Amino acid sequence: MNFKTKLLSFMSEEAYKPLSFRELCRIFDAEKDMKKELLNSLNELEDEGKIIFTRSERYGIPERMNLVVGLIEGNQKGYAFLRPDIKEIPDIFVSPTDMNGAMHGDRVIVRLMKPSIGLKSSEAKVIRILERVNKFVIGTFQRSKNFGFVVPDEKRISHDIFIAKSDFNNAKDDQKVVVKITEWPEKRKNPEGEIIEIVGNSDDTATHINSILKKHKVREEFPKSVIDEAEKIEVEISEEEINKRVDLRQLKIITIDGADAKDLDDAVYVEKVSDDKYKLGVHIADVTHYVKENSKLDKEAVKRGTSIYLADRVIPMLPKILSNGVCSLSPDEDKLTLSVEMIINSKGKVVQYDIFESVIKSYARMTYTDVSDILENNDEKLIEEYKEIVPMFKLMEELSLILRDKRERRGCIDFEFDEAKLELDENGKVKEIKKYERRISNKIIEEFMLICNETIAENMYWANIPFVYRIHEDPETEKISDFNKFIYNFGYIIKGNQELHPKELQNLLKKVKGKKEETVINTMMLRSLKKAIYSSECVGHFGLAADYYCHFTSPIRRYPDLQIHRIIKAFINNKLNENNINKLEERVANIADKSSAMERIADEVERDTNDVRIAEFMLDKIGEKYEGIISSVTSFGVFVELDNTVEGLVHISNIIDDYYQFDSSNHCLIGDRTRRTLKIGDIVKVKVAKVNVAKAEIDFVFIDEESNKN
Predict the structure, then answer these.
(1) CB count in 10 Å sphere of residue 495
(2) What b-and-e string marks burial along 86-124, b requiring 16 or more CB atoms within 10 Å of the CB?
(3) Are 647 and 688 in contact, with CB atoms under 8 Å apart?
(4) Which residues contact 10 (CB under 8 A, 6 or more apart)?
(5) Pairing between strand 192-201 and 161-164?
(6) Triad 599, 600, 602: Cα angle to 5°
(7) Closest by alpha carbon to 708, among 636, 664, 654?
(8) How far apart are CA 192 and CA 163, in angstroms?
(9) How many CA atoms lie within 13 A of 674 on its CB side?
(10) Which of the 8 DSSP states describes residue 437?
C-alpha cells in the first residue's frame, strides 16, 4: 500500500480531524526522504481534488469539510451545475455570482451554501479551480475598431472572450477562429485572449465542420512516429504464425458490410451440424497481432478511443494502412483472426463454444444490399453469381430469426427509431437525405455479433479475470415512476418500479406499435433509460436483458474491443499471472472510463456535423411546405421531424393562434384560450421559415392551423 492509499484511508476514518504536514509526518513516522515522498503524495492528492489544503495549512477530505469536487457544466445564462465526482451526490446549483471565474468543463471544488429543498437543488460556491479545460476556444470573431470579441461556439461558455487589437492576428469580422485564453474571467470581467488560428469564413460549411472537429479536439492527423511504426509492420504472414493457429482457409467464410465500408473487421460462417443444431463461426480481425500494448500505435489508439464516421469521410482509430489494409478482412487474402465458434440449438441457446486464434481467407466481400436482395427479392442475377454460398445465406437467415426470437422471449428492448443517411454529391454537399434501411442482412449480422459478444463476456466473467464489459445500468426508480405517470394518461401502466424487468418495457412497445401514441411513448421511454457505457464491473445490460455483454467484434474501430482481444489471447495462451492481473485491473478500469468518454465525443461530432450538413441542405428550401410529426416539446416551442428525419423548431413566439403554457409533467404545450394541446406524436403541417447553417438551426412555422387543431 503506497502513501497515497494510506493517506486517503487514514483521512477517511471517522475520528480524523484536519492535520498539518508536521503532524502527519509524526503520525506516519516520516523522516528525511520519507518526508519528501509524503509531501509529493499530499500534493498529488490535492491536485486530484481528493484532499484539501486549508487556509490554516491543514489537510482533510473535502466531503467532511462541507466541500465537493466535480466538473462544472455551464449554461449560456451564466449559472452552472456541479457534476460531483462522487456519483451518489446529486448535482449542485452554482449561481453566476458564485462561479468565481470558473468556466464550463472546469474541475473545481465548491463549498455548499444551501441544502436541497424538495425538488430544488442544493447551492454552492466555487472556492478553487483544480483544472482549466478551455485553454483554447473556437468561436466567431466580432471586430470593432479598437478591440473585438470571440463568441464561443460552445453555448455552455457564457462569456464572450475579449480580444485586444494587437491580438487580432489578421482575423476579419465574422470569421471562425481559435482563441487562446490569456486571462481567465473574474467578477464583472470577461476572459481575454489572442487569436492563434483562423478556421475560415462563416458562410462556408466546411468551416463549421472544421470548427466542430477542433472544438472536440478530434485528432484528424496521425503523428509521423505513429505512421512510421505502422509502415514498418510486416504484411506477409509467416508459415510459423499460420502453424500456431487453426487454419480455416478452406471454409467459405464471408464478410457482410455496407457498400462503402473499407474497415472490414468481422467475417461469418454458418453450417447445420444436425437437425436441431447450427455452427456459427464469428471471425474477428486479430488487430492485436499488429498493435502491441504501449506501442506508439496503441497509445494513439487509446487517445482516439474510436473511429469517427462523418458523412464524407472516416477519421479512423488506426492508420488506414492498418484499418483499410493489413487488418481488414479483404476477400481472397490470408488474414489473422480471433475466432468464436458456437454450436447453437433450435431454441437459440449456445450449447458449446470455442475461442481460438485462427487464419482465414474470406470467400466473398458481400454487401447488405446484395444479401438482402437475394433473401428478400430472390434476385436471380445475384443468386446465380453467388450460387455457391446462397444456401448459407438462407441458413444465416434461419439462425438469426431463432436468435432474435430468443432475445425477444427474454425481454430485450428493441427501439426502431429512424436514422438518417446523408448522400453527398461530388462537391461534398448533401443531395438527398434518406431513412437508413435495416434489412434482413443487417439484422443477421446484428444477431450474430450480439450472441458472439454475450458468449465472450460470459466466458470471461466466469474466468474471473479483469475485463472491459459493455453495461447498461437499470433505470433510476424516479425516472421510471415519472414515465409511469406519463403513460397512465394513455391508459398504460408498467409494473415493478423498484425491480423493473426490461420485459415490461418490451411489452409496452408491442402494445403501442402502430398506434397514434407510439412515437411519444417510445421517445419518453428512451429518455427514462440510462446510456450504455464501458465498465470493468459486470452489472449486466438492461436494454438487451443480458447478464453478460461486451464489445468484442470491432477491434479496428473501437479500443475496448482491442483491449478485450489482448486479454482473451493472454488467457487462452496461459500468459496471465498474479502480477499482470493486478496491472490489468487498473488498466481495464482506465480504458473503460476513457473509451466511454471518447464514445460520447464521437457521437456528438457525428451528430453535430450531420446537423450542419442538413441545415445546408435545407437552405434552398425556405418557403417549402411539409407534413411532419412533433418529436419533442419544450417550454420554448416544439420540434417537428419530417419524413426524411430532418428536424426543425417551431418557436413558441411563432405559434400565433393562442398563448401557450408548457405542461412539464405531460410534455405538451396547452393553449390558454383554445385549450389546444401540442404533444409528441402529433401530425402537423409546417413551412420552412429560416435556416442558420452556422448554428445548424432550422426554423419551421405551422401552416393550415385548422388541420393542426385537436
Answers:
(1) 10
(2) eeebeebbbeeebbbbbbbbbbbbbebeeeeeeeebbbb
(3) no
(4) 16, 27
(5) parallel
(6) 65
(7) 654
(8) 6
(9) 17
(10) P
Amino acid at 356: F
Other C-beta atoms lying within 10 Å of the C-beta of residue 384: 9
Q: Which CATH code, of 3.30.2000.30, 2.40.50.140, 2.60.40.10, 3.10.400.10, is assigned to 66-131?
A: 2.40.50.140
**Three-state DSSP class for residue 148:** strand
Question: Is residue 283 a contact partner of residue 253, using CB atoms and an 8 Å limit?
Answer: yes
Extract the C-alpha cell encoding 44: 498529488
Task: List, for the chain, all residue ranges whose pLDDT scores fall below the cut of 70.
Answer: 1-2, 117-120, 497-498, 704-710
User: What was the pLDDT predicted at 709?
Assistant: 45
Contact 195/138 with Cβ under 8 angstroms? no
Distance CA 397, CA 350 (A): 17
The closest alpha carbon to 649, from 634, 662, 664, belongs to 634
- The pLDDT value recorded for residue 704 is 66
Q: Which candidate, 209, 323, 305, 211, places its Cα nearest to that of 263?
A: 323
Residue range(s) occupied by CATH 2.40.50.700 in the chain: 136-202
The backbone torsions φ and ψ at residue 298, rounded to the nearest 5 degrees and listed phi first, read -65, -45
Q: What are the grid coordinates assigned to 361, written together?
A: 481467407
- Where in the chain do CATH 1.10.10.10 domains reside? 3-62
Asked if 662 contacts 677 with a C-beta cutoff of 8 angstroms, the reply is no
Question: Rounded to whole angstroms, what are the CA distances from 14 to 9, 18, 60, 61?
Answer: 10, 12, 12, 11
Torsion angle (degrees, nearest 10) of CA 373, 378, 381, 383: 90
CATH number of 136-202: 2.40.50.700
Measured CA to CA, the distance from residue 524 to residue 520 in angstroms comes to 6
Q: Assess contact for 92 and 82: CB atoms under 8 A.
A: yes
CA–CA separation, 151 and 695 (whole Å)? 12
| Residue 502, Cβ density class (10 Å: 0-12 exposed, 13-18 middle, ≥19 buried) | buried
Which segments within 364-465 are labelled E, that is strand?
364-367, 420-424, 430-435
According to DSSP, the β-strands at 625-634 and 123-131 are unpaired
Q: Where in the chain is the domain with CATH 2.40.50.140?
A: 66-131, 622-708
Rounded to 10 degrees, the C-alpha dihedral 123/125/130/136 comes to 90
Q: Given this model, what pLDDT does residue 160 score?
A: 94
Residue 446: φ, ψ to 5° = -55, -45
In angstroms, the CA 542 to CA 410 distance is 11
- For 249, the grid coordinates are 482457409
The angle formed by the CA atoms of residues 632, 633 and 639, to the nearest 5 degrees, is 55
CATH class of the region 3-62: mainly alpha
**Looking at residue 157, what DSSP letter applies?**
-
Give the whole-angstrom CA distance, residue 666 versus residue 669: 9
Domain 622-708, architecture per CATH: Beta Barrel (2.40)
Q: What SS3 class is residue 337?
A: strand
- Asked if 377 and 371 touch (Cβ cutoff 8 Å), the reply is no
